[in-house]
């Protein structure tokens, strides 16, 4: 909807008295008029809500001359007023009659009111324009009471009884001054009668809990809603009880479940090297670095070093720890222990697979970790372990133990032999739980010695309070054992080192690791003080002051400067572990590249490179036609006679030397050697790579080959001359690859036959060319020919052929000569007509080059250059 105030960009507007919706033409300017809102209509107003608004109209003295010029007062005072001063006096002094009787004749401001125009009501606005001339409408447009009076009234106040259309509405304060309209406008937003969300429950306006729960609150629940809630709560309670009962049933079922029991027949012997010699995973009872002064009991036990046996169970390798028992009863206590272990699931805990309970084959079957125990890894000097990886090992152990303690289980046997490393270099804690199951029945003295030795070797890991019998295995005791593991990880040595354990006191602790300045930087601990402080905290003599494994995890993460993931550490370690192979790989790669180059060279000698590459990629090589190329044929004159004077090996040596010479020459030109058959040699230019200089390349190559043959020495007949004849011809050919097992790149067409005829009809040490080749070379220029004339060619009849003698030498002017001549790249002069019988002979004498033109033989086809 276009409203009156959209006609210009001023805050008020004025029209002549005759303006209407059909002709809303305003005055171009209205000088001397000030109109404004004193109390503006509110920005937001509800439907049917009344409000007061005040506005002011001031007519300045300059208004009246302009108004007289516009005939605004031509009806004033009944007869009209033409004097501005008189008009101003009349406006300010005349007393207006009642509203109903006020007209432009008897009242200056004879109509003042406020009315509205809903902008959304297009159909109710005439011609799309909303102006003060629209008559009142009680349902859509609101009009205030009309007022009259002089311009000196100043403040005009109107009561707007209410607006009835929601949305944006124009509020227009309208003045009729003599014969003109003046108005000021403001757009307000008309809101619904009630607004849900204004925090007022207007029940008298129709708001209630159903229509506006935000203001009036939620409605009270009905009986059926209350019943539904009660039923839902009962169902939830029943479901909760069922879930609890189900979990208890599963716990009970797991307690009595015997699927973990493995028959001895199900465990197959591992027949590989691992099964023959045992796993690297050792129950480390030996001490290769201990003193030789140990007792005989220790020596006997050391000779019986125990390895973790491996076996095959259901197609996978498992670790089998056999337990010596005289009797075994599957008691409730053992069932509870097995149930607790089976519930353990953590990436840093070795999983329990099952167990054998048949006497005498009682055993515990666990997950197999192929890298062996932590002790094996630390003692293996071939494995480079930087400190980032050592921190990763310690962190893995702390995470596994933290999970174990969080489930209410104490290890009690934590040693470096009971921490194993899987194929992803993740440390897993093993040998936890099942204390009753693991109990060994010792009978013979030798077994007793072994048991005592194993316990003695484990003394260093046992906390003082446990060793003294003050308490049994506990979480602080596991922390103490972990402190010894930290020493092992730092030193990469047994906790006893070179000490004789038989003479050590009961409260002995391994010395703290010391920083070695001789080792390289990567092998040094990045934070030795913090690391040693952690060890001291873990083996504190007061169990209550030792940190928990949760705290240890955070401490290790904090002091570790390399926050690398396990995969990054593994990759880094593997890089260092394989550095000694890099040089071998480089050498083998170099050899492989060299062999590939040899293979490519051999392949490219048999086939053109583009064709060979297509065959190697498995694509079909289609036959191809070439419009222009030049073919070279040559053979050795008197080769049969020469062969009769030579042995087979001498002939082979001769041809090898000859063709090696030829091959070295053709490498200098853009040509391709097609084949060699006996003493025959075939070369082409322009195939398979097209070139417009094919005749030039073949001709230059031919001259080089003939020159080389004149100097060629036969190895076994040095006094014999090696004479060759050469034939050249230019023309179109077709090419293609023939055969699969031994593919050959072949040329087909009359051009091949003609080139062969040029060779067979040639002469020793001469290059016999056809007219087509001659034409190509003559167009290029720079060659000396001799016309041989027309000769019979088998299959072709009479053909005019040429001898290619040499390239044209560069002839430069000399101080001792009277003239100079150069034919390189130029056409013959007009002095030598096409019927001249010419040949150019070049003689060099005393540094002066003389050109002698000798007319000797008529060549019917044209000039000899």
From TrEMBL:
UniProt key word Metal-binding: no
SMART domains from the UniProt entry: CYCc
Ranges where the record places region Disordered: 500-519
Transmembrane segments: 226-247
Gene Ontology BP terms: intracellular signal transduction; receptor guanylyl cyclase signaling pathway
Pfam family membership, one: HNOBA
Guanylate cyclase domain span: 630-759
Catalytic function, reaction form: GTP = 3',5'-cyclic GMP + diphosphate
Recorded GO CC terms: plasma membrane
Record GO terms (molecular function): adenylate cyclase activity; ATP binding; GTP binding; guanylate cyclase activity; peptide receptor activity; protein kinase activity
Subcellular location: Membrane
Bilayer disposition of the protein: Single-pass type I membrane protein
Superkingdom of source: Eukaryota
InterPro entries membership: A/G_cyclase (IPR001054), A/G_cyclase_CS (IPR018297), Cyclic_nucleotide_synthase (IPR050401), HNOB_dom_associated (IPR011645), Kinase-like_dom_sf (IPR011009), Nucleotide_cyclase (IPR029787), Prot_kinase_dom (IPR000719), Ser-Thr/Tyr_kinase_cat_dom (IPR001245)
Keyword tags: cGMP biosynthesis, Glycoprotein, GTP-binding, Lyase, Membrane, Nucleotide-binding, Receptor, Signal, Transmembrane, Transmembrane helix
Residue ranges of every copy of the Protein kinase domain listed in the record: 266-558
Family according to the record: Belongs to the adenylyl cyclase class-4/guanylyl cyclase family.
Protein's UniProt name: Guanylate cyclase
């Amino acid at each position: 909807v276009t409203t009156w105030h959209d006609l210009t960009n001023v805050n008020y507007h004025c029209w002549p008295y005759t303006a209407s919706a059909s002709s809303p033409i305003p005055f171009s300017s209205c000088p001397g008029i000030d109109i404004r809102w004193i109390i503006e209509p509110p920005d937001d107003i509800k439907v049917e809500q009344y409000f007061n608004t005040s506005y002011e109209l001031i007519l300045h003295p300059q208004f009246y001359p302009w108004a007289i010029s516009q005939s605004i007062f031509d009806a004033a005072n009944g007869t009209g007023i033409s004097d501005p001063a008189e008009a101003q006096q009349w406006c300010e002094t005349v007393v207006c009659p009642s509203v109903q009787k006020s007209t432009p004749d008897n009242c200056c401001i004879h109509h003042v009111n406020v009315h509205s125009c809903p902008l959304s009501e297009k159909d109710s606005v005439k011609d799309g324009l909303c102006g003060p001339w629209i008559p009142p409408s009680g349902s859509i447009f609101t009009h205030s009471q009309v007022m009259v009076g002089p311009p000196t009234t100043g403040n005009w106040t109107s009561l707007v009884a209410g607006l009835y259309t929601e949305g944006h509405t124009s509020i227009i304060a309208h003045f009729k001054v003599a014969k003109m309209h003046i108005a000021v406008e403001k757009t307000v937003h008309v809101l619904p009668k009630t607004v849900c969300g204004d925090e007022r429950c207007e029940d008298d306006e129709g708001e209630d809990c159903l229509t506006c729960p935000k203001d009036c609150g939620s409605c009270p629940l009905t009986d059926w809603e209350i019943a539904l809630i009660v039923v839902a709560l009962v169902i939830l309670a029943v479901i909760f009880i069922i879930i609890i009962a189900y979990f208890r049933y599963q716990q009970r079922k797991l307690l009595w479940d015997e699927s973990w029991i493995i028959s001895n027949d199900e465990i197959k012997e591992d027949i590989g090297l691992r099964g023959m010699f045992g796993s690297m995973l050792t129950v480390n009872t030996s001490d290769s670095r201990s003193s030789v002064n140990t007792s005989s009991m220790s020596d006997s036990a050391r000779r019986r070093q125990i390895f973790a046996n491996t076996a095959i169970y259901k197609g996978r390798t498992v670790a089998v720890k056999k337990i010596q028992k005289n009797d075994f009863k599957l008691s409730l206590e053992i069932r509870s222990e097995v149930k607790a272990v089976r519930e353990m699931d953590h990436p840093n805990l070795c999983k329990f697979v099952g167990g054998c309970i048949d006497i005498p084959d009682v055993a515990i079957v666990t997950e197999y970790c192929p890298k062996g125990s932590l002790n094996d890894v630390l003692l293996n000097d071939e494995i480079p372990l930087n400190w980032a990886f050592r921190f990763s090992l310690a962190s893995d152990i702390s995470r596994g133990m933290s999970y174990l303690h969080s489930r209410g289980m104490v290890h009690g046997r934590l040693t470096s032999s009971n921490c194993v490393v899987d194929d992803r270099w993740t440390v897993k804690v093993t040998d936890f739980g099942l204390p009753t199951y693991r109990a060994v029945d010792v009978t013979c003295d030798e077994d007793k010695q072994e048991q005592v030795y194993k316990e003695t070797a484990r003394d260093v890991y046992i906390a003082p309070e446990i060793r003294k019998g003050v308490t049994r295995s506990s979480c602080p005791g596991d922390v103490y054992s972990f402190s010894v593991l930290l020493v092992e990880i730092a030193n990469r040595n047994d906790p006893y080192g070179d000490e004789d354990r038989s003479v050590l006191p009961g409260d002995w602790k391994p010395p703290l690791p010391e920083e070695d300045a001789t080792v390289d930087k990567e092998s040094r601990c990045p934070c030795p003080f913090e690391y040693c402080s952690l060890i001291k905290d873990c083996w504190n003599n007061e169990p209550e002051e030792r940190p928990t494994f949760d705290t240890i995890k955070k401490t290790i993460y904090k002091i570790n400067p390399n926050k690398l993931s396990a995969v990054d550490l593994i990759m880094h370690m593997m890089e260092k572990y394989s550095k000694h192979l890099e040089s071998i790989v480089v050498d083998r790669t170099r050899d492989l590249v060299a062999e590939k180059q040899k293979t490519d060279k051999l392949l490219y000698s048999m086939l053109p490179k583009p064709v060979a590459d297509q065959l190697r990629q498995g694509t079909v090589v289609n036959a191809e036609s070439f419009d222009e190329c030049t073919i070279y044929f040559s053979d050795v004159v008197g080769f049969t006679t020469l062969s009769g004077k030579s042995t087979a090996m001498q002939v082979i040596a001769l041809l090898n030397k000859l063709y090696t010479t030829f091959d070295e020459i053709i490498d200098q030109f853009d040509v391709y050697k097609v084949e060699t058959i006996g003493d025959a040699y075939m070369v082409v230019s322009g195939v398979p790579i097209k070139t417009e200089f094919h005749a030039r390349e073949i001709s230059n190559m031919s001259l080089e080959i003939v020159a080389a043959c004149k100097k060629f020495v036969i190895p076994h007949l040095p006094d014999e001359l090696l004479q060759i004849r050469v034939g050249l011809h230019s023309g179109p050919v077709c090419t293609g690859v023939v055969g699969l097992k031994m593919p050959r790149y072949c040329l087909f067409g009359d051009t091949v036959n003609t080139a062969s005829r040029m060779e067979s009809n040639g002469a020793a040490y001469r290059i016999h060319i056809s007219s087509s080749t001659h034409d190509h070379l003559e167009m290029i220029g720079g060659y000396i020919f001799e016309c041989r004339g027309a000769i019979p060619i088998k299959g072709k009849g009479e053909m005019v052929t040429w001898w290619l003698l040499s390239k044209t030498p560069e002839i430069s002017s000399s101080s001792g000569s009277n003239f100079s001549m150069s034919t390189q790249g130029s056409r013959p002069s007009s002095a030598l007509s096409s019927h001249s019988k010419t040949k150019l002979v070049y003689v060099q004498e005393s540094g002066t080059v003389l050109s002698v033109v000798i007319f000797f033989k008529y060549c019917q086809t044209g000039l000899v250059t």
